[in-house]
Amino acid sequence: MRTTAFIPATMSVSARHVSFTHRDASQPALQDVSFDLAPGTRTVIIGPNGAGKSSLLALLAGKRLISNADLRINGHDVFRNTAGTGATYLGTEWAMNPVVRGDIVVSAFLDSVGGYRHKERRDTLLDILDVDLTWRMNCVSDGERRRIQLVFGLMVPYDVLLLDEVTVDLDVLVRDDLLKFLKADSEARGATILYATHIFDDGLNFFPTHIAHMSFGRLVSPPTQWPLEPNSELGLKFGSASLYQVALQWLKEDREYRRELEATGLKLRGARRDQTVPDDSETFYRKYDYSH
């Protein structure tokens, strides 16, 4: 087992030598990931689909257990003291839970999870996310259900917020208002935010204090100050580029790296043009005939 280094309790989020492989997977989802996030920082994780962003956030939320890594939030081991970390995790799978698709009025649903205890903050979020308390959970659209999730998850104050693609269903106006709220909340309370997203329009430029790049389970660029410092390594590479331009370049580099791997004979994605496919459907589907 790897010996982990001392992690200062002053860091909001700390990771040391995090490696993780999903059951039955041939490739690891995370490979030796280490980083620290200071209190009050807002870090956007950039990376292609399958880079390991969701796996990292799920581990930080204590949703999966691994034994050969040290993951801490506010100095607490996330695998042994999840309740004491002060962390809130919001991911896309929430909207698929049958419980939140039942025939229940939104006001009753929010009260059932303690919304009445945080009325002022809850009401602020209801206004920002434009949620109707008379909606029924089984009748709302995907975007409206996502808004309800965000009220549900954000109405209780947090120390660390882990966001995994939860703004993907929001229209651009609501998303902009939400990001402004999260930024102001982070600055006022010193809350730390780690946000994985694939939406890099101009509205995201103002939000992060740091950006990070993940690819093939590796942390290619650890959390780096944003806007980029002109004389830093990334500052010299990207100049005054927008966050969209930085993300686009990193994703292009990821794709080229994958193609280099494929050139060695390992085909990862896309069509298999070297395979012979029958021209007629009868021959093609014959292999599925189990009548003999």
From TrEMBL:
Q: Where is the ABC transporter domain?
A: 13-241
* Keywords, in A-Z order: ATP-binding, Hydrolase, Nucleotide-binding
Q: Which Pfam families match?
A: ABC_tran
Instruction: Identify a single GO molecular function assigned to this protein.
Output: ATP hydrolysis activity
Q: Which SUPFAM superfamilies match?
A: P-loop containing nucleoside triphosphate hydrolases
Q: What is this protein called?
A: P-loop containing nucleoside triphosphate hydrolase protein
Q: Which organism is it from?
A: Mycena chlorophos
Query: What are the top taxonomic ranks of the organism?
Result: Eukaryota, Fungi, Dikarya, Basidiomycota, Agaricomycotina
